[in-house]
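Chapter summary example.
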Amino acid sequence: MLPLATAAGSGSNRAMDGPEPLVIGRRAFVGGALLAATPAVAAAAPRRDWAALGEAVRDEMRWAWSQYREHAWGKDEIRPVSGGASSFPLKGHHLGLSLIEAMDTLWVMALDAEFADALGWVKAQAAFDVDGEVSVFETSIRLVGGLLSAHHACGDPALLALARDLADRLLPAFATPTGMPYRYVNLRTGATRDPATNPAEVGTFLPEWGTLSRLTGDPKYHDAARRAALAPYARRSRLDLLGTRIDALTGEWLDGRATIGSYADSYYEYLWDSWDLLGDREMLVMYRTCTAAILRHQAVRQGGALWFADVDMTTGARLSSREDELAAFYAGLLAQGGNRAEGAAYARSWAAVQDRFGVLPEEWDFAAATPTQPGNALRPELADAAFTLWLGDRGPEWRELGARHFDAMRRWHKAPFGYTDLADVTTKRQADHCPGYWWSEQMKYYWLLFADAPRFDYGRNYLSTEGNVLLGFKRGVA
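The structure predicted for these 478 residues follows.
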């Protein structure tokens, strides 16, 4: 059995030479305060009734769920403008993705009738013996993680059995000389495809799979995930930087661009998380080494704002000043890991872009101060960072940042049948797609940020990269 993370300082496996940040769970940390809200931000912020705003979040979740229930029940993703549906991660076959991703959010909001309805569908209809190919990474963080978090919420053994069945179907992808998984696997046959992968798709497994090993008593899930996470780090450059594409068969880098955004983002997140949730000391060393290199070689001050450039992993030469919105999460991760001032500064950089457009573009060129991809895929990363920063110091700046994110979502993303992404943040033209992560991520971040949720332990918790709660639910609370 693997140990579960406990309150900071309670286990000797956490001890290392030198000072440690005082940490209690993936999203919760106490001790030295983060930078306080600037007077200008504090003065400009409206006076909020946070309990009422929390209820508004729950009302929107209930309404969106009713639309999904009526128009796309059991389907992967609803099309909120047309009322149709799309499938993901399988093409042409639905696995109930949004339904599974929503379950722990419904539970922590005490939407118990809705949760029971979803649980009934999963127990009667969810099945993964399908002759079709899925992304190993996406299927793990969304479906394995979603089932585990729903199991954490209610304790139903059927959910754990489904999570284990699905992980077993993903395991053949890890049978490579390096331990890094192929990107795709057939759920029925185990056939694999595409060894040209990236750090995020290699190293974003250990918290979920370590939890699965702890719950089942079978170490194979933990061991496969850990071996995969070690492989890119072992191949880092002399600058301690990682690239964005790597061959899972040979271990050779295929692209030497170092970034904190897509293709790498959740790798760094899960180095920290594997320490935070599982007490893996080696992962903490890896996190600190990578973070120091990123701050040394990629941090850029532009007009007083902090950004992170893409650079050559070998030379450190700057390659691009474009950052994708996915990187906004890094503000919270920096603060969790002890770089509190940098985390706060980076969150403010993205907050300024949000204030300019109302909604963040998919990609921003910080040197040119212009969006280079003007759409928005209903992203949660800035809300994620705001929640994490708020847990660190309970500062009003971060709660207000999350509130502005929620206000903008209600204003521009709401469609006839749910919440949709935007084709262009400059015109606010809507597209027609609600990603599964919307149900698991920002709606949960908003609720936990505003509502003082009685079913959530704010002092000892863990949320995954997909927002799935694997530690911190309080059962037996109304």
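To summarize the output: DSSP finds 17 helices and 22 strands in the chain.
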